[in-house]
Design goal:
The protein is mainly α and 421 residues long. The radius of gyration is 21 Å and the shape is globular.
């Protein structure tokens, strides 16, 4: 094994141990976020044969619909390990599940940490592609110890899986662009399969797909585009068909896009954070749902879409100001959702991001000035699509961590690797 490969492997191992230490020994007996509760409840329902449905007793809690990707991973882990959540719990309500992190099955935490380790390797590979072996080592080291990327593996959240799938898609697209002939079609198809899985894990991938397709069309990568589109279709179309059969309407992944759009585009929105960061907006959401008590989650989602679009049409000036605030908070992590955490969490996250950002800007400038096609065009498009997500909906740390932070680490590694010792 060559020296850079040994260093990257050591960094990945250190990153895995750091993630396991956080998940198994530090982040224990902590309250679960609502998203975590929903993922665990849905996974238990799937694992026990109830399908992608909440129990009737949970509908009054205002639970959001969820895309299937991460739920399938959790359910598979529960079944494979014969966890007590599946063998003894009756998944009729949250009371049958622990509401603290001590109740998260160890196997799920380990799987999350292993996925986080894959992210380290992907960051190293992308940095090495643009900046050489030294950049690869710097990228691996930074991704291993960068706090937000490390500690997200300790939660029952879809971000680590989405990050691994999205970055793997980028890597395969870049590899496919280097090859020719049948291999380009094959690699493009593999990238499409991963992109489809990423879309069914987190809908943010939807913004990447058309941008990547336009880039491929512009650069006349027709074979790659065909393979990529076919791979996405193979994964996504069966789920769309299932949704049409179950809900009698077109639903791409899950019916929660409307409430997410409304959360970032309504008179009470302040440009950053979800409902937890704005309790008054949470009250308004409950009031809006009280006006439509007979509607299903799918039907209520249409109400949220209409309310958000009405706000944009009726208050274009306020909406533009709101968009400016979103753009600011996308890159400056000091919004209300950050202060919900402990001071230790907030300071650690802010310091880590503050140290990374200047080098990332330098690296981005260096990559931009390089002649010819960018060696990281797909990563740039993925990062751009993540910014678009924040502008369309709202910025939040969990929207930033899976893509923007790894992209920043890659750019910073490129910048640092170009400096003489």
């Amino acid at each position: 094994m060559k020296a850079p490969a040994k260093f990257i492997a050591a960094a990945a191992l250190a990153g895995l141990l750091l993630r396991l230490a956080f998940a198994l020994w530090y982040w224990v007996d902590k309250p679960l976020m609502k998203d975590e509760q929903e993922y665990l409840l849905l996974a238990t329902r799937v694992a026990t044969g109830h399908g992608f449905t909440y129990p009737a007793s949970a509908t009054s809690d205002g639970f959001f619909e969820r895309p299937p990707g991460f739920v399938v991973l959790l359910a598979t882990t529960l079944v494979a390990t014969q966890d007590a959540l599946v063998t003894t719990a009756v998944p009729d309500n949250l009371d049958s599940l622990s509401r603290t992190s001590s109740g998260i099955p160890t196997a799920i935490k380990v799987v999350q940490c292993l996925i986080g380790t894959i992210v380290i390797l992907l960051v190293a590979a992308l940095a090495g592609r643009a900046g050489g072996p030294r950049a690869a080592k710097l990228g691996a080291l930074a991704a291993a110890v960068y706090p937000p990327i490390a500690w997200v593996s300790g939660y029952v959240l879809s971000e680590p899986l989405y990050s691994a799938l999205a970055l793997s898609t980028v890597w395969l697209l870049l590899r496919a662009g280097d090859d020719a002939g049948a291999s380009r079609l094959r690699l493009g198809g593999m990238a499409g399969l991963l992109a489809g899985a990423a879309l069914l894990t987190k809908e943010a991938m939807l913004f990447f797909l058309p941008l990547a397709a336009l880039w491929l069309v512009w650069h006349k990568q027709r074979r790659l585009l065909v393979g990529f589109a076919a791979g996405v279709a193979i994964i996504v179309l069966p789920w769309i068909a299932r949704n049409y059969v179950v809900h009698q309407q077109f639903i791409l992944t899950a019916a929660h896009g409307g409430v997410t759009l409304w959360t970032g585009n309504n008179p009470l929105a302040h440009g950053e954070g979800d409902l937890a960061a704005n309790p008054i907006m949470g009250q308004e959401r409950r009031a809006l749902e009280a006006l439509h008590p007979a509607l299903s989650n799918q039907e209520m989602d249409d109400v949220y879409y209409a309310a958000a679009l009405d706000f944009v049409r009726q208050h274009p000036g306020r909406w533009l100001i709101l968009e400016a605030r979103k753009l600011f908070y996308t890159f400056v992590p000091i919004g209300p959702s950050y202060t919900l955490h402990s001071n230790r969490y907030f300071v650690t996250s802010l310091v880590a991001y503050g140290l990374l950002a200047p080098f990332a800007v330098v690296g981005l400038w260096q990559l931009w000035r390089r002649p010819g096609p960018s060696p990281l065009w797909a990563l740039g498009i993925l990062a751009l699509s993540s910014v678009v997500v924040c502008l369309v909906f709202f910025p939040q740390e969990r929207f930033r961590i899976p893509v923007l932070d790894p992209s920043a680490i890659v750019a910073a590694a490129v910048a640092l690797s170009s400096w003489r010792r």
